[in-house]
Amino acid sequence: MKAKRQKKPRINKMAIFKDFGYEPHPGQVEVHSSRAPRRIVACGVRWGKTLCAAIEGLAAALEPNERSMGWIVAPTYDLADKVFREIVVIAHEHLQHRIITMRESDRRLVIRNLSGGISEIRGKSADNPVSLLGEGLDWLIVDEAARLKPLIWESHLSQRLIDKKGWALLISTPKGKGWFYDLFRKGQSNDRHFQSWNLPSTSNPHLDAKVINEERNRLPERVFLQEYGGQFLEGAGQVFRNVRECATEDWKDADPKGIYYAGLDLAKINDYTVLVIIDHSGRVVFTDRFHRVDWSIQVARVKAATDRYNGALVNTDTTGVGEPVFEALRTAGVRCMPYPFTQKSKAALVNNLALMLEKNDLALPKPDLWPEGIDELEAFEFSVSDSGNVRTNAPSGYHDDCVVALALAAWIVKRRAGRPSITWL
Description:
The protein is α/β, with parallel strands linked by helices. The protein contains 14 helices and 17 strands.
């Protein structure tokens, strides 16, 4: 006869929470009490998602086990650190006697669990998918899940849970209706493997509802409904509309009599230098995008491209490294003008670009010809910082170099289109 497989004893979560000094609010209690293998928490900002996930992960690490492995994954290391650091703080305060190894630089915490076994917790970034291969996981927490590309979940994360029949907790503020929304919908169905929650920030009893409601007066309505209301809205948070409708053009060679303008966004460490050239009617005719290239070579490439398009006037980002490169461009004979970035000047660029796309004043290359640019435009979003300020930027893990270069070029087009000549600034 086969011996019966003994079930692992389950810990008393609420007793552990009491030891931690953690008193979950009613919404958090529901998440902690769920036995669904896939839990999806799509709630407004400041609802308590990070703390809920951190406590859940630490409780899982304490489960009696010979050896266990859990990951915290987010679009970037900075975002993964939110949950991981919360775990580290709690472990230091309440589980110091159980810590075997704690290396914050490696985002790795090893503790002795309640049966004397070894439990490891790792913080991971989804911007390097190769690092997400290989290991089988007992549990997984995904923070800012709505910002992840669907391929990361489908091909790199969910598969890690198969061998050990592990569970996953995905937390995020809603961002449109993508793959995260699809998982949320499963959690609202009769599929016993999924359970989901969708609650506004005001459902956190520790927040002042009056203060949150005051935010409605200063935020765009769609941004408020998404960030504080926790609502899934089609295209919510998206800064640029009508992108695909404008993306119908092919590349176009220079017209000997044509007038051209360009935008140049210079690389900042891990970013790309991007050059976008537009004709006087607002049609994007040429783009160039390069990475980790010496400044002298970058200047030569910009010079060659603008010469080909009749000495296109270049609007150049002169912030930081931009100033000396701007001078090098002028020395090389490139006709350019400076555009130093401040919060106000960049907002003006973004607003102008959004308006021109909305009014079909720009013609973009087809998506298959300029995939990086179209992807960046569609991903660019409104967001609300922890301090409550509204920002427009690329989501974590994405670039915005193509957006900025296009916006710089569009800025000149809007102000100079139709003029018979160009003044060299």
